[in-house]
Structure formats: C-alpha cells, structure tokens
Prior knowledge:
Keywords: Actin-binding, Calmodulin-binding, Repeat
CATH topology of the domain at 6-112: Actin-binding Protein, T-fimbrin, domain 1
Radius of gyration: 27 Å
GO molecular function, one term: calmodulin binding
Shape: elongated
Order of helices and strands: HHHHHHH
Structural class: mainly alpha
Domain Calponin-homology (CH): 6-110
CATH superfamily of the domain at 6-112: Calponin-like domain
Number of helices: 7
Strand content: under 5%
Number of strands: 0
Function: Thin filament-associated protein that is implicated in the regulation and modulation of smooth muscle contraction. It is capable of binding to actin, calmodulin and tropomyosin. The interaction of calponin with actin inhibits the actomyosin Mg-ATPase activity.
InterPro entries: Calponin-like (IPR050606), Calponin/LIMCH1 (IPR001997), Calponin_repeat (IPR000557), CH_dom (IPR001715), CH_dom_sf (IPR036872), SM22_calponin (IPR003096)
Amino acid sequence: MVKRDPEQEKEVLEWISAVLGEKLPNQPYDDLLKNGILLCHLINKIVPGSVKKINEKGGQFQMMENVQRFQQAIKKYGLPEEEIFQTVDLTEKRNIAQVTLCLYALGRLTQKHPEYNGPTLGPKMAEENARNFSEEEIKRLRDTQIGLQAGFAGGASQSGHGGFGNTRHM
C-alpha cells in the first residue's frame, strides 16, 4: 500500500474545487470523497451527463453506487483500468493513496480531451514530436556515421593485456 501524501491530497481538493467552481466544505480529504457525491459532480463537470443519477442521501450501499458510477464514467472517459481505485479503497478507507493517484490520472487525462477547457492536475502531458526525414537524409546519415551497434567503440580494446594471472609491468 502506498503512503498517503497530504500535499497531493491538498492539490487534488484544490483541483476539484477549481473544476466545480465552488469552495469545498472544510472536512478531512477521505470524508469529503467517501460518499462519491463530490466525485460524481466532478466527472459531470468534466463530461456533462456522465453520471445520470447521484444519490445525495441514503445508506452505505447508495454511497457505494455513487463511487461505482464515478468509476464507470472515468473508465468510459478513457482512464485505464489499472489506474482506477477499487470501491473499498475509498468507502472503507483501505487505500486512500490509490484514490489520490486515480484522481491525478484523471486530471492528467483531461489534457488529452480538447473539448475540456478547465483546470488540469499534475504535470503537462508530452506532445507528439514526430520527425520526418527524407530517404536521402537517412541514407546520407547511414553512410557517414558508424554506430556503436557495429562494434566500434573509438579504438578501445584489450589487446596487449596479456593472459589471466599475469602481473602488470611498470
């Protein structure tokens, strides 16, 4: 299990608050997320209509349904299965750090969706930097350079080393 990072949790809450455009209640991180209501509102703000029904009140089962609906919505949005936390990680507070990592992955994924123009979370995604060389450029470079793959290492060798066990002459 990964150790919780209060700084990351603070960043996640700030991001959620910025996406929703509202100040979050002053509660512990895991308590704010536990019932899934905030998460459902978050994904609905990112992709309107992702979660059709949000249980605003009810027992633990209804709250678990919220979390599961959020998970289904982010999976549909494109988040890989391995980055999505298990329901019990949040509802039973078994692995809150995994929940944080999942939300970071979601915040990062929003950068790949041009239809979303809100705040993002985490490092900026790398953009493709395709290089297109003409056939003559490739041929010219192959003809003028000898790669290390060919076995040339600038003249270094073990010639003159002698055999195993020989003394070194000074």
